[in-house]
Amino acid sequence: MQAELITIGDEILIGQIVDTNSAWMAVVLNEIGVKVKQISSVSDDEAHILAALADAETRADLVLITGGLGPTKDDITKKTLAKYFDCDEFVTHDESLKVVEQIFAKYNRPLLEVNRQQALVPKVCTPILNQVGTAPGMLFRKGTKLFISMPGVPHEMKHLMTASVLPLIKQQYQLPAIYHQTILTAGLGESFLAEKLTAIEERLPAYIKLAYLPKLGSVRLRLSTTLEASPVLMAELDAFADEIMATVPEACITKGDLPIEKVILDKMAQKGLTLSLAESCTGGEIAHQITQHAGSSKVFVGGGVTYSNSLKSKLLGVKQQTLESFGAVSEETVLEMAEGAVQNFGSDYAVAVSGIAGPDGGSEEKPVGTVWIAVANKHQAKAKRFTFGKHRIQNIERATMAAFTFLFHFLKEQED
């Protein structure tokens, strides 16, 4: 089963937004056994869209299209699809119109004719009800091929995919089963992991593949097979996963496809432990990663983005003498930040981060990318220096991942 993804919109091509839709769709399609053949981004231009559709038809069984379904003049996807499928007649999809009316009534906004036209669809398509937005999805058939158009708004696309499109694909096609066993690692780079796991990779049977999926500060190791599930096969996948974890125990966080902050939250929730944060150079990114998970309030009590030295002193109790003698980016300061968070925020554990994210502000002693991270509880505190690169956003992401990794190992030490 081959699929192609087409994203439509000038905003993608000029870099105004990042195409996160395709990445998410590729993941969920892979999970049900659909292989993505190609991903394309095209402009809001009729000729360009028509050419992309024709090319995709030659390569794929399933073509998923996102974007260009809004109410403004630059949203031309619907009319272009009608042209591609030789349809001159549009009809109102009554269920979609009801949703549009309900949305505008909910927010007490006037319903304009241009908004009503959102419920118009080419007569040859099968409408797919969008219960969280104003533009319905549209399904077109051409022989054995399916073309499905969805809104580009991520939460609307995900709703349509989850509620309608994925069930439809599974019903329409005989798909191979794909089974994964994932291990999350942190602290070792992809090449170092590959070197340590060479002997295991050489012993993997042809029907089990090992993939390395790196991000800043972490690597997911994914064992995959497309064979029909059996207790023996599942046991074999588990055995290889356990062997990998035993080979690189210093890097392994968990067996399972979970982000590290979720692993930490679950671990702390099980033990009734609480966590607070004292962030400086990460600017609240650590808190953001934590609070995106439902139930995080069971563990996370809050924290402070103590960017200035004065706030480090007022909120966290960092001594003025410490700041003057050692500076904000120092072991001494970050330890006092973490200890102050535990005491002042009333948590069992705390993480503190202070660094130079860049691109300026560094020195010979403390270059851009220097980050100090501390973890603490009521009895102990530890700090560690990290040296990242010169790119601000990457430094923030790396510091966030390093903070979670440091906390994970600190919690593990306390257990031991």
From TrEMBL:
<dbReference type="Pfam" id="PF00994">
    <property type="entry name" value="MoCF_biosynth"/>
</dbReference>
<dbReference type="InterPro" id="IPR036425">
    <property type="entry name" value="MoaB/Mog-like_dom_sf"/>
</dbReference>
<dbReference type="InterPro" id="IPR001453">
    <property type="entry name" value="MoaB/Mog_dom"/>
</dbReference>
<dbReference type="Pfam" id="PF18146">
    <property type="entry name" value="CinA_KH"/>
</dbReference>
<dbReference type="InterPro" id="IPR036653">
    <property type="entry name" value="CinA-like_C"/>
</dbReference>
<protein>
    <recommendedName>
        <fullName>CinA-like protein</fullName>
    </recommendedName>
</protein>
<comment type="similarity">
    <text>Belongs to the CinA family.</text>
</comment>
<dbReference type="InterPro" id="IPR041424">
    <property type="entry name" value="CinA_KH"/>
</dbReference>
<dbReference type="InterPro" id="IPR008135">
    <property type="entry name" value="Competence-induced_CinA"/>
</dbReference>
<dbReference type="InterPro" id="IPR050101">
    <property type="entry name" value="CinA"/>
</dbReference>
<feature type="domain" description="MoaB/Mog">
    <location>
        <begin position="4"/>
        <end position="171"/>
    </location>
</feature>
<dbReference type="Pfam" id="PF02464">
    <property type="entry name" value="CinA"/>
</dbReference>
<dbReference type="InterPro" id="IPR008136">
    <property type="entry name" value="CinA_C"/>
</dbReference>
